[in-house]
């Protein structure tokens, strides 16, 4: 058991699911998109990504935005496939870890994500678990595109804490972003910053040390 911990909040990308943004950059480059890496760094593009992740624009609006920079014969499906290329696998040890932890703790997911990715990884996740529904692994899953906020906005943490009536001192937050971890600390959550190690390789009893 984790000493003093009753609740665990997991990030998703890079923690539960393996991701590789370079694969999306490569896939977009194959669609003749010039310097696709700028989608993640250009202020206008970054704004579009942020809007997508907080549900401020539709999937189609985002797809049309990217499409205008690609070769003329690029289809919406091409964009979706390229955008989802960064989503890799959810290893079985992590699925088993969630199942075991849920027997002892309240388990939550708090993810900056978008609806396009959500549709993809939920299907893949349920294939990996032979039909067990994604939400069954968590007491509740929170997605930025649904609640119109994203980490590290402190309000998204407050939303989860207040809705679930969590005691921050009894709640462990695990994320691979230091910025997200620092915000969690401001609310007195126990934290573990996942750096290079894999979450399924961590000794459960030392997660918050």
In short:
The chain has helices at residues 21-29, 43-53, 59-67, 76-84, 92-102, 115-128, 144-147, 154-164, 178-186, and strands spanning 7-10, 106-111, 140-143, 171-175, 190-193.
Q: What does this entry look like structurally?
A:
The chain is an alpha/beta fold. It has two domains: 7-19 and 90-206, HAD superfamily/HAD-like (Rossmann fold); 21-84, DNA polymerase, domain 1 (Orthogonal Bundle). The chain is 42% helix and 11% strand. A five-stranded parallel sheet has the order 3-2-1-4-5, sandwiched between helices. Helix 1 packs antiparallel against helix 4 (76-84). It is globular. The relative contact order is 0.18.
Task: Name the poorly predicted regions.
Answer: none
CATH T-level fold name of the largest domain:
Rossmann fold
CATH architecture of the largest domain: 3-Layer(aba) Sandwich
Termini separation: 13 Å
Key attributes of the depicted protein:
209 residues; alpha/beta; Rossmann fold; DNA polymerase, domain 1; 2 domains
SSE topology sketch:
Layout (H helix, E strand, L loop, with lengths): L6 E4 L10 H9 L13 H11 L5 H9 L8 H9 L7 H11 L3 E6 L3 H14 L11 E4 H4 L6 H11 L6 E5 L2 H9 L3 E4 L16
